Amino acid sequence: MINISKINTVFLFELIIVFNAITNVTDIYKCVIPTAHRALEFFNQIEGNVNYRELLQKHPEAYQAGSVYPDAFYQGICEQGKCHEVSEDSHWTPFLKTSINYIREVYPQPWDKSAQRLVAFLFGIASHMVSDVSWHSLNIDQGFLKAMGEVDFYGSYAEAHQTGDFGGDVLSRYELNFDYLEAKWYIPVKDLFNIYNLYYGKTIIEENTITHCTYILFLEMYGESLGIDKLHSTYASKSPFLVERFQEYFLGGVDDMAYWSTNIFHLISFMLDNGTSDCYLPENPIFIQCNTERREKNIKLRKHWQKNEFDGDFTPSVMRADGADNITVDSGVVFQMNSWAKGSVLFVSNVMDAMNMNFTVQYPNHITSPSTSYFVSSPYARLGWAMVTADLNGDGHGDLVVGAPGYSTLGHVQIGRVFIVYGLASGLPPAKMDLDKDADVVLEGYENSGRFGSSLAVLDFNLDGHLDVAVGAPSVGSQYLRYTVRLNSDNPSRGTQSVGKAYGFYPPPPKDVTFVVHGDTVSITFCFSGAFCGIDRSE
Question: Which part of the chain is the Phospholipase C/D domain (predicted)?
Fold first, then answer.
């Protein structure tokens, strides 16, 4: 436990914020903690006698710490950057495989508390691994920062990387709720030391270095919470793409990273119970497959990438600051914000919020609360992402079609739903409505990460005189897109639906993407970007 003058704590936090903003020395959140939290929301896996969902919920102090841990040794203020390669290696499949084999060898089931914490920590690491791949475009095309560079920085990945990593932290704090953030971390130091020895075949990093560098990371995390969201306008002006696509971008947005995290959780659960011999384990963790056909034949080797580093000799002994307590436990350490530090952070944050309120303009004529609300029970559903209106049931009144592409249920992530609410003579029903229970029609996707409901169109596809509803699911399919759903207008009762097929080009052609929707006797071509779309009767 560390005890030094308490007046240093807020100064230390402020110093860390300024230092990070100037040098981008590390990206504490980069959405990894929100991503890990979102991934756990609908993860459900039981292997053997272990309920992994319950295990992760039981040990959030280890799970959250693991989700940030792989970046611990990138920092210049961590041993003058001498352990950079340890962080690099902690991002890839060989380290994950070594960790799984270590757990199976050293901690046979049933697991004690130390083993459970180590497993939770490893799940957090795995979430970080796959999130980094899609965020940084590692061995894949069209990842978030790559796209951001093309859109906002004239094709410069380096500039997008510099802005996006810290900017992602800023947006996370500005847009997302962090009430679930743990005030303590558990780091399985002794186990990590042993795993690294197995991985390298010799001692590369000492236990006290693991403790020291993760402690810096812990303080930085709470330092960033001290007003980092106030930088939102600065980073929004640098990259509109970052602001607009941060959560929903199809490869590296927060929702997508949460899906890939859930996917690798299932794989780790399988390997912890069955071993790694039945799994395909390429170096890039996003391509891991277990007990299935190994489809990826030409996966590139690791693409090394560098965190932004500070090369100067900035090495304050933050281990002397009295911001947090460092408590040694059986096989690791617990970092915990003490009550004085938590109170200081809350006080400064409240002061900054109060100062901002002085610049808030009030408009008394604006509507500040809804007259009614339509809602669903699933968090992160993105209800209202797509909406159209049309008279679907032929009663002369406009009906509402609403997409919720992020809709999930336990064990089924981002399958998506579409809700249809029939209008009345007076308009839409004014009552507060749970759409899961009270919508007139509910359509649901059936493939994980399908994001059914991302786009909507209403027109008479088959020229039978009745309007049909086409629903887009952009993340589904490999060579073909197969997820157009058509409401049977002849019998518009709840749940009545028929499934058609939509074919698209993959990869997309250089011109506007065109889809052909096949009906009973005709096919209708429709396009994006306002391009001409006509009816083709030559089936």
Answer: 40-215
Peptide bond into 507 cis (omega under 30): yes
Structure tokens at 109: 């089931």
Residues contacting residue 338 through CB under 8 Å, at least 6 positions apart: 322, 323, 324, 325
In contact, 116 and 58? CB cutoff 8 Å: yes
Cα 88 to Cα 103, 129, 142, 238, 289, distances in angstroms: 21, 10, 22, 28, 22
Which one of 302-316, 357-371, 380-394, 472-486 scores highest in mean pLDDT? 380-394
**End-to-end Cα, the chain, rounded Å:** 76
Strand-pair partners of 457: 470
Look up residue 127 and give its amino acid: S
CA pair distance 193, 191, nearest whole angstrom: 5
| Entry pTM | 0.78
User: pLDDT: is 369 or 346 the higher one?
Assistant: 369
The answer, yes or no, to whether residue 516 has pLDDT greater than 70, is no
| Three-class DSSP labels, 283-341 | CCHHHCEECCCCCCCCCCCCCCCCCCCCCCCCCCCHHHCCCEEEEECCCCEEEEECHHH
> How many Cα atoms are found within 13 Å in the side-chain-facing hemisphere of 454?
17
Chain center to CA of 299? 24
| Preceding amide of 60 cis, omega within 30 | no
Residue 450 CA to its chain's centroid (Å):
15
Contact 476, 447 (CB under 8 A): yes
Taking the C-alpha atoms of residue 3 and residue 353, their distance in angstroms, rounded to an integer, is 30
Task: Please write down the long-range contacts of 351-356, taking CB distance under 8 Å and 24 or more positions apart.
Answer: 352/227, 352/230, 356/230
User: Are 400 and 32 a contacting pair, CB within 8 Å?
Assistant: no
d(CA 355, CA 262): 40
